[in-house]
Amino acid sequence: MVQPKQTQANLQKSLSILQAALDSSTDAILVVDTFGKIATFNPQFIRIWGIPEGSLHIGDNEQSLCYALDLLKDRQAFLRRIEEIYKAPKQRHYSELEFKDGRFIESYCQLQFLDGQPLAESGAFATSPSRKPPAGAWRN
Question: The pTM is what?
Answer without folding.
Answer: 0.76
